[in-house]
Amino acid sequence: MRGGALPPRALGLMLLLCLVWGLNLVAMKLGNQGIPPVLQAGLRSSIAALLLIAWCRWRSIGFGLWRRDGTLGPGVLAGLLFAVEFIALYVGVGLTTASRAVVFLYGAPFFVALGAHWLIPDDRLTRAKAIGLLVAFGGLMLAFFEGLFAPAGERALLGDMLCLLAGALWGATTVLVKASALRRAPAMTVLLYQLAVSAPLLLIASPLMGEVWHVEPRPLVIGALIYQGAVIAGASYALWFWLVSQYSASRLAAFSVLTPIFGVLAGAVLLGEPLGHLFGAALALVVLGLWLVNRPARSAAPSAPRMR
């Protein structure tokens, strides 16, 4: 395990993940036009689980000694946290504005930093890392500043709290993977736990929350669902869990604030959505904050040799 600054390879992979996840925000909007949201999340996990099992069988990749390696308990818990996270997120987004939902959801890096500080010995919260997180989060708030003060409805506070809960569960899952036996398990095993547990739970929760099971078979809707299942819940999450097992969880999680930034850019390019007037300054703050988070810790100066 490496708790220091992220090397260029990890930085490049994390930027790729944030770009892919940012496009997922657009895919979710397109999918919601023909599939109820919690049902969409359940179908996404189901598709990803089937594809993961098929790919591992084709490549003759096993899932490790999951019956005896101590990962079953934390793996099931990770899947449960994953399912509740998305239920809270989808319900919360329906009660508040998208801008407020994004800001509260991406409080997740703070939960990761605090959990890692107490539970992961080589991933302590330093002063530079804390300042970097605050600066990056300030940039995120600036990017969505105009939407934060838009009318949000009478139940917006409940929606905000649910989105904050979703961020806390996201952070808790990341720390759980890093601080438990899951950190030694293959990334495919960690991912299968989440998918296999969350898929039935989300599919059961969908009708209980009043959703009607109906899928409009339009190309954009089906394409968005396949993208979420194969690329997001499949390939990108496998890469994410591998990164978490190898590098500092708090530094990796800090980079997730780039996801909504990329989402805004994707919305502007693909959906014609306008960029806010403060977007450039917001992006600069986010970059500065991430630089502070990932700056190598200063090593103590060597003491002068004593005269004999």
TrEMBL record:
Indicate where this protein resides in the cell.
Membrane
EamA domain: which residues? 11-144, 158-294
Alphabetical keyword list: Membrane, Transmembrane, Transmembrane helix
- For this UniProt entry, which segments traverse the membrane? 38-58, 70-92, 98-119, 131-150, 189-208, 220-240, 252-271, 277-293
**InterPro entries, A to Z:** AA-Vitamin_Transporters, EamA_dom, EmrE-like
* Bilayer topology annotation: Multi-pass membrane protein
- Record family assignment: Belongs to the EamA transporter family.
What is this protein called in UniProt?
Answer: DMT family transporter
Which lineage ranks, top first, belong to the organism behind this chain?
A: Bacteria, Pseudomonadati, Pseudomonadota, Alphaproteobacteria, Acetobacterales
